[in-house]
Amino acid sequence: MRFVLIILLFLVFGYSLGLVLTNSSEIAVNLLFSHAPAMNLGLLLILCLFLGILTGMLLSLLLFKVFQNKWEISRLSKENKKLHEKLAQSNLELERLTKVPTIEDTTYIDPQTHVNPTDTTVIR
Description:
Elements: H1 2-22, E1 26-30, E2 35-40, H2 41-97
Antiparallel strand pairs: 1-2
Helix pairs in contact: 1-2
């Protein structure tokens, strides 16, 4: 991989050098509100290409980060919704398990018909 990067770096350097040598005329640059001194056209082209590539890379990284954050927010929102539903189900189950028995829930035992567990008499 390093070998490929070194070859690409030499190709870009060679192209830049050829661009500067081929376009050797001097031109003045108007920057709307100021003027830059006259400079080599090839050097100006390389400078503009470099600034354009750098700006494009920074904007694309920023845009990708925005989309990545949106995807993460939507994923977390879905997970949050599922957890809220699970919490609601758990609360209902907990409420059902801790419900205090009421009079309707208990069975009535007549105290007069109490059976002594040690009594061994047989009723016929």
